[in-house]
Amino acid sequence: MIPNGTLELSADPTGIAQAADLLRQGLLVAFPTETVYGLGGDARNGEAVANIYAAKGRPSFNPLIAHVASVEAAQRFVQWSDQAEALAHAFWPGPLTLVLPLRADHGVSSLVTAGLDTLAVRVPAHPTARAILTAFDGPVAAPSANPSGQISPTTADHVRAGLDGRIAAILNDGPCGVGLESTIVGLAGEPTLLRPGGVALDQIEHVLGTELHHHQPGGILTAPGQLQSHYAPDSPVRLEADQAQGDEVLLGFGALDCDLNLSPTGNLTEAAANLFAALHKLNDTGRPIAVSPIPSVGLGVAINDRLRRAAAPRDS
Ligand code: TXA
Ligand code: MG
Fold this sequence. Notes:
Layout: E1 7-10, H1 13-24, E2 29-32, E3 37-42, H2 46-56, E4 65-67, H3 71-75, H4 82-91, E5 96-101, H5 110-113, E6 118-122, H6 127-136, E7 140-141, H7 156-163, E8 169-172, E9 183-186, E10 192-195, H8 201-208, E11 213-214, E12 237-238, E13 249-252, E14 260-261, H9 268-284, E15 289-291, H10 300-311
Parallel strand pairs: 1-8, 2-8, 4-6, 5-9, 10-11, 12-15, 13-14, 13-15
Antiparallel strand pairs: 2-3, 3-7, 4-7, 5-6, 9-10
Helix pairs in contact: 1-6
The protein binds threonylcarbamoyladenylate and magnesium ion.
Residues 33, 35-36, 38, 62-65, 95, 97, 99, 113, 116, 118-120, 122, 142-144, 181-182, 184, 194, 222-225 line the site of threonylcarbamoyladenylate.
């Protein structure tokens, strides 16, 4: 527990300087990115990174993303390539994470990579995230700021509900705009999609001029979400539902009579931004959740990925 409780910082120069200061002390700060709130710690400080895993109760084989302020900063830690350059040029700052071979002199704690010889790096677009990274001037390891296996946080209240008393501070800057985690592309070998997310696949394939390989389920755990049940509400989740049955609350999409609608106009970007907040809200009702079909195009691929995990059989 944090002796004086979890501080709330605001998104102004004082709050940003405090956040950078706490990170320098090896403490943990939750901060907004354009995707979801991240739980940040100094990626070079093994103790800080160990505390991220502890605060989240996360299995230690799941490696973390290093957040940096710029392409130049990323290049200090990983071996850059033409494909990395093309994707970074097109999508950074933004909701794309690149997995690249580590440089020999990287200085990042092996707890961040979980012992892999690659590192996931991302330059977030959120102005407050960028301000913290610039003020801190180092790599910040940051998984989503939720207890492991639970729904990702898109507001500071979600973060507090899951991690209050377990982290030094939360920088509150309102809801996240994208609402889904970053797309993760592996570039250590053939370009591979490791997790669908905030940048749609066809955009990435367009820039690379080639199709992405897809992660093989059952292969080595090199990427996210191979833990089937993830992003899981406490209540059961039923997908592809036309209507609610029994006690269910219906989460809808498009023109539909339902309890909560991700986007009444059928806009996938709006639906992505609302997804996790909607799951948090329906979870609070304590009732089973039914979800109407969502088209698997563009950001719909990532939305359906998260929904399948929310609906998957639970480990415990
Ligand atoms: O949008 C996001 O990506 C958010 C915000 C906070 O930036 N972060 C996030 O982190 O979603 P996290 O830890 O919840 O998910 C990162 C995923 C993990 O599932 C992990 O398996 C994968 O990235 N990953 C990290 N390093 C990797 C590596 N070297 N190779 C393959 N996958 C890696
Ligand atoms: Mg997560």
